[in-house]
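Issue: copy button drops trailing tokens. Both records pasted manually instead:
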Amino acid sequence: MVAESFNGETKGTCDGRASGRASARPRGRDDPGCGPLIVTEDGALLDDLLRLCAAAGAEPEVAFGVPPAPGSWEGAPLVLVGAADTRRVPGTARRRRGVLLVGRDLDDPDVWRRAVDVGAEHVAFLPDAETWLVDRIADVAEGAGDPALTIGVVGGRGGAGASTLACAMAVTAARSGRRTLLVDADPLGGGLDVLLGAERVGGLRWPDLAESRGRVNSGALEESLPRTHALSVLSWDRGDTVVIPPQAMRSVMGAARRRGGVVVVDLPRRMDEAVAEALAQIDVGLLVVPAELRAVAAAGRVASRMAMVLRDLRVVARGPFGSGLTDETLAELVGLPLAGELPPEPGLPAALDGGEAPGGSGRGPLSGFCSAFLTAALPGGGSVAA
């Protein structure tokens, strides 16, 4: 099955089968949106590959029945070679990454030898590998690199301040110039767009995306969302609660992460299949726990459910601290590593009531925590040292 695009229609066009070399210019591997090179003399296979390129929004360069143009083999970000067409690859072509051998005959005993001959990374058999191949081609079309550092934030109890921290984390990341997307995964949370003062900003909300299936185009997704404070926000409208199927959550989260930068997800305390799909794509989770014994007990229950899916979950201890509780003690009682402490910020409620976005001033304990956390997290390419 070919993955669907964001709006239910395929994006981009591909030239039809040519009786020779396609007229596309050779393009550098770092050229954003650059399509793959197809090398084959099998007309039926070419038709299939052109169809998959169209589904992925990529415009390929085609060497049909002739060797690739000079520079094309080296310059294409991805090369698709027909399983019976390896002799079309010039003997002088250097070994490179991103070569895929594509065929149909699972019983072909020579296919693996030919894959070794051309230095192929994978052998893809159609039609079974169509979805996988569309994803690989779409990564090329979208200029996909390293995925975004994805941070999930959840409250240990109701009113813990998780939504405020999630917004502040996103605002802080965007202020540093990083591509940032904020995802509101809690349908009962009131809407992060409201917290950011963007409830009247045009753009799609979750109800518009509830039927998403297959691969969602990351560029189309980001362009369609409300934009505020230099970041994109996926939140809820003011209508009735809409159930987000797990397939839609998986597709949207995958698209959100593909363009790199930072993705922050505000998570509900309950667990369902859609939340599990979101957790599966989160690098590190922050569990906000106020310094209260009842909050510790509630946070322990939340942690036990989240930890079944999310391997890296840490406590953010929120003050004020009393009754002998410290941030380290709080983390120990919950049974998780400590991410850091959020001291009281007396002026924060008034600032939020006055329309200031969480973390918008760049000052105070909330902004300080977010800046320190992101500084520690991002240099390692999304790996947050414990």
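Record 2 (pasted manually too):
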Amino acid sequence: MTNRYSSYLKGLNIIIDFILLNLSFYVGYVITNDSWYWEITPGHNLTHIILMNLVWYLSSHSCHLYTDVFTREAVPIFKSVLRSLFVYGLIMAFLQNNVLFLPYNYKTLVLSFAFFDFSLIGWKLIFLLQRRPHKNSLTQFRPVVIVGTGRNGLDLYHYLNNNTYLGYKVLGFFNHEGDGSRIKNNINVIGKVDECIEFVRRQNIDEIFCALPDEDFHHINKLMRDADRYLIRFKLVPDFKDHFKKNVMVQLYGHLPVLSPRMEPLESKGHQILKRGFDIIFSLFVIVFILSWIIPILGLFIKLESQGPVFFRQIRSGKNNKPFYCLKFRSMTVNKRANSLQATKNDRRITKIGKYLRKTSLDELPQFINVLMGNMSVVGPRPHMIKHTKEYSAIIDRFMIRHFLTPGITGWAQVTGLRGETKTHKDMEKRVEADIWYLENWSLLLDCKIIFMTVYNVFRGDKKAF
């Protein structure tokens, strides 16, 4: 029953969203042109309508807006709504600037987009409020039993009870001791493992969760064979908690389940191409429109204040710990300790123009050349000096994980207050944790968010920039 209602509500959401999209555009057109009459011509208007609907379809599906609309919690649904609107607005703005056959002016598009935002969020709020009291009543819970009362079995029991949207109701447990129908630690132990199949057949239960330890393979195999014989679905819960302390990624290599300690979206070739394409376009834009004129100006100031090159080249740790030359505007006087001693607040080596460059992060701009060359990315973990990589990798267990990624000009650690001098090992541990979080949660939207926060911090001023 849950699946039937999920399909029905998914279809309803899709239809109403598209109605609101087209209605919003009509409202924007009417307000802009002060006329209720809208002439649809195949050459212009119809093309725009088709394109607009196609862009929304791609945006909403790429952001998983219609995934599990009946069972998913409200907060994830609203996040999907906001992501979908952001992607849709971004693509439509790009098309308006670069595609000549879009006939409408900015006022029409802005008004229609604003009305669509308001109406879509309002509709989703109404939908969630109406869904809330009926969510459990319309869900037909599937009765199941769990075999094994060890840590895995108890964890599974609590998870299924706390996540009712999955649609499971645990009737009780089976273990080797068997306690009849007595309650043990608030857990209903129905009987022994050998009695499980007979019980589920008698109660018309069609699913078993087996959480027996791996060494009990004899009982696991027998349960699996008996379940298959009587058309009972058998699900095995492997115990890998001793190896992995949090959520893991499971992949099947043939019949072998392979567990990874973390999700890595950028292991996908498609995501790698997407990120690299974004880096190339973004870095070319900065090089052509900013670096082309700012290098001569800043270079002159740097040269006038102190002797030495305009650019500072330093070997740093890159992806897979491969060294590369990182470029910056020189912000210090030429000194022998540049490759070993980290900059500190009120560092006497920093020049006057260098202080301004570091405060505004302008010293990092030449790194867009690194991005274009492929040594760096716009967003990623900040690259460290080789000396610091060796030091911290010896004392921080997960330090080297950040080198699975291409280093970035800015990153999640930098925009969440973890930039600048690392005075203690604890400071570096927090930065590493932020870098690993970015590795596990990467998306192109997250990169855009980090870039926006970086620009915002530059104009607002960052106390840790010196």
